[in-house]
Amino acid sequence: MKITMLVDNNTIIDSYYVGEPAVSYFIEESGHKYLFDAGYSDVFLQNAEAMNISLDDLSGVILSHGHNDHTRGLTYLVKQKFQNMLAKPSLIAHPEVFLTRSENGAEIGCPIKKSVLEKYFSFNLSRKPLWLTDRLVFLGEIERLNDFEAKNPVGTFQEDLKNIPDYVMDDSALVYRAKNGLVIIAGCSHSGICNIIEQAKKVCQEERVINVIGGFHLLHTAPERMQRTCDYFRALQPVEVYAAHCTDLNAKIALSAVTSVKEAGVGVELYYE
Fold first, then answer.
1. What predicted TM-score, i.e. pTM, was given to this entire model?
2. Residue range 182-206: mean pLDDT, rounded
């Protein structure tokens, strides 16, 4: 498997790409090509072109969850790319990915309607784990088992004309079953990065974790939660951690005391057997 970071808050020095506070990764595995999240704008398209990556033959688009910094780029994908698409790709996500969401009066959900996307994608919405290849799995709905993650709502969603606290139950992740252990690929980890890793281990029946990649949603994190997250990673001992997107500097510094934190950003390429 090869992962290329097309969109992140940061870009790698001397690689002249464009960043934005969002996520999009290009994943190649067993002859399949997947776009994991689509960022907020057309930045992922700009960077893919600069990297000589073609998105004309995607096997599918995978959405980690329904917030607009992970889905708004779909509007640019369908406008600019679908006339060149060689086949109708799958859209893989949790069934609640298209909820109408808001926070502090602003709309934060996916801005493109499901009915529009159905013209361009074949839908595969699942709460259960979904194997995309023999070694790559979409985790579906994450079990929230610990008592320190995913405790606060992110705005609200609308249901029956009511605004309901949104715990982002559609937040999911990918896992690649490599030869030496698991590679966990998260979008934003609203469900908790430790919860995600535990579900990955359960679904894949594998305790070894090589890398953890993506947004960990550790922003202005309460000291107790940060400490318990660090305790978890100290015990887990992954080979490397690529903390990106919604992981602030304080969290990266704290994690670097207990595990090997590597630089993440647009232009990073990672390979796994």
1. 0.96
2. 98
